[in-house]
Write a structure and sequence with these properties.
The complex is a heterodimer. Chain A has eleven helices and no strands. By secondary structure, chain A is an all-alpha fold. In chain A, helix 10 runs antiparallel to helix 11. Chain B is α/β, with parallel strands linked by helices. Classes of the chains: A mainly alpha, B alpha/beta.
Chain lengths: ~290, ~260
């Protein structure tokens, strides 16, 4: 029995559907395969070198004695300064723009600027930091210069994500609060922020984890390639995890390549930890409502 | 209330609106509205969508202040005070003129904290005092018996009708004199609607209630006076019984007999 025109048409549509199904699946797999290859290479090279000694030992010119401690402490110092600074300035800015600022040309200009700043390449922030913090303010090639540069770098990201979180608070809740005679600050403190805080925290943690992985601005600001001792105060010279990894990876000896991989594992674990924390936080707060 | 005020007026009108005009940028939303609203009674605003009834309601506690481009001309007096006078404290005005919204909008907090929200922002911190207010307000909104064991539970666990009565209780907690209700039952099922209507009958003994409603039967059931709005004008304002039985204006008659709207 000959197939009707309609049946032929349906068969053709089914074929086209399968072709696209396959194409999209292949595109998805490209990412997954690349990630798996990367993980395989890093783990096979670095896992053998990763032990407690590697984490607790200072850096060294001899690969078998070199550890990640110097860089780990450098990164922690950076975070300890950057995290509170960005959080406070970022959330305050977001509150101002969302709740207080009138819709004027000026506020729209500020908004446009912040959105654009979030997309500026990180090396540009490095050069800005070099000019302002290292030279003009004479903080030198220190933790402080590095942390302030990082603050500038991720501030726009935190502002934008905090704004999104604040915008997501339903207007009906604000109206309820104003309707009871609350003023703006009471409404922000008691209604807007409690509802927005999970989103704000998630955005901040993700921005910080971006900062942890940043290399370029720190190189420009002058993080040291080879220092042995971890920093002791805000004005110490320092190195950070990605810089240490970059330096090791650039050495000719094969052993250094391997401890670079071990360093990458440490960095990945920290990032993974921070991102999981952000997700747990979000889920916890979402459930509560 | 007005006992301790030198009140020479013989009438008991708590809200007076004189020659009120309101514009949303260019749009003339309220056209020379004149109205006097009786104390401790229920006044209903009816009319088709976009006729200005909700707009007028929101001028009474100045919630329109938050909308960009609103201009207001004319006089509104509540309890003898011009509420658009620059010296008026908007926060205190809204404490005195409470509001219940179309959609139940409890805070994502416990039942207790929802009710205590208003008293707390107005400076009450003593636990015993707050406990008393919470109990009194929930009883006032006929919700106490349903929730007295669950005060610490989230308000989001309540049904829609309970949430709306919670919002009424929350408004009562700051001791208002006037209660504005903006279509308070339009998101509720018939049984919850009935409970809210019964509650309104209770509340009018102590509060002046102004209710916007799309539902003419509701206006007829719950209100003492009714105002019919059309295109930003008050076409007719009269005792509810008279307005529904012998409307003076042809447009009112057309609307209440269902010919448009």
């Amino acid at each position: 029995m000959a197939r009707t025109k309609e049946e032929l048409h349906i068969a053709k549509r089914k074929r086209i559907n399968s072709v696209f199904h396959g194409l999209f699946l292949a595109s998805t797999l490209v990412g997954v395969v690349a990630l798996l290859l990367l993980l395989y290479q890093v783990l096979s090279q670095g896992l053998g070198w990763l032990d407690w000694d590697f984490i607790t030992h200072n850096s060294s010119r001899r690969p078998e004695r070199a550890g990640i401690w110097t860089a780990l402490v450098g990164t922690m110092w950076l975070m300890v300064v950057t995290a509170p600074l960005t959080f406070i300035i970022g959330v305050a800015t977001a509150i101002y723009l969302e709740e207080y600022a009138k819709d004027t040309k000026l506020s729209r200009l500020i908004q446009l600027n912040i959105s654009n700043l979030a997309g500026v390449p990180s090396i540009v922030y490095g050069i800005l930091g070099l000019t302002i913090f290292v030279r003009v303010l004479a903080f030198g090639q220190s933790i402080l210069s590095g942390a302030l540069t990082m603050t500038l770098l991720i501030l726009p990201v935190i502002i934008v994500s905090a704004q999104e979180a604040i915008k997501a608070v339903p207007g009906s809740l604000r109206h309820a609060s104003y309707g009871l005679g609350a003023n703006r600050w009471q409404t922000i403190l008691r209604v807007v922020l409690p509802s927005a805080i999970p989103g704000i925290l998630t955005g901040s943690i993700l921005a910080l984890s971006r900062a942890i992985g940043e290399t370029a601005p720190l190189i420009v600001v002058g993080a040291a390639a080879f220092i042995i001792r971890p920093p002791t105060d805000l004005f110490s010279s320092f190195t950070a995890l990605p810089i240490q990894i970059y330096t090791w990876a650039g050495q000719p000896q094969a052993e250094f390549q391997n401890i670079a991989s071990a360093g990458i594992i440490v960095l990945l674990l920290i990032l993974l930890g921070m991102n999981s924390f952000a997700i747990i936080l979000r889920n916890k707060f979402q459930k509560r409502r | 209330m007005s006992e301790n005020k030198k009140d020479t007026k013989a009438d008991n009108n708590i809200v007076k609106i004189a020659d009120l005009n309101l514009y949303y940028t260019e749009f003339h939303a309220l056209k020379s509205v004149n109205m006097e609203i009786k104390e401790k009674s229920v006044t209903a605003f009816i009319g088709p969508s976009g006729c200005g009834k909700s707009t007028l309601l929101r001028t009474l506690n100045r919630m329109n202040d938050m909308i960009k481009g609103v201009r207001i001309k004319g006089l509104i007096e509540i309890d003898g005070t011009d509420i658009y006078d620059p010296n008026v404290n908007v926060e205190l005005l809204r404490k005195k003129v409470g509001m219940v919204f179309q959609q139940p909008n409890p805070f994502p907090k416990s039942i207790y904290d929802n009710i205590a929200y208003g008293p707390r922002i107005h400076g009450i911190t003593k636990k015993q005092e707050l406990d008393d207010i919470v109990e009194r307000s929930l009883k006032g909104a006929a919700l106490w018996n349903e929730v007295k064991g669950d005060l610490k539970k989230s308000a989001y666990g309540l049904s829609g009708g309970q949430q709306q009565r919670l919002c009424i209780a929350r408004a009562l907690a700051v001791n208002p004199e006037v209660l504005l209700m903006d279509e308070p039952t339009s998101a509720l099922d018939p049984i919850s609607t009935l409970k809210v209507e019964e509650l309104i009958q209770e509340l009018k003994n102590n509060y002046t209630i102004i209710i916007v409603t799309h539902n003419m039967q509701q206006a007829a059931r719950v209100s003492n006076d009714t105002a019919f709005f059309l295109n930003g004008e008050v076409v007719e304002f009269n005792e509810t019984v008279k307005l529904f039985s012998t409307p003076r204006d042809q447009r009112t008659e057309d609307y209440i007999s269902g010919r448009f709207g």
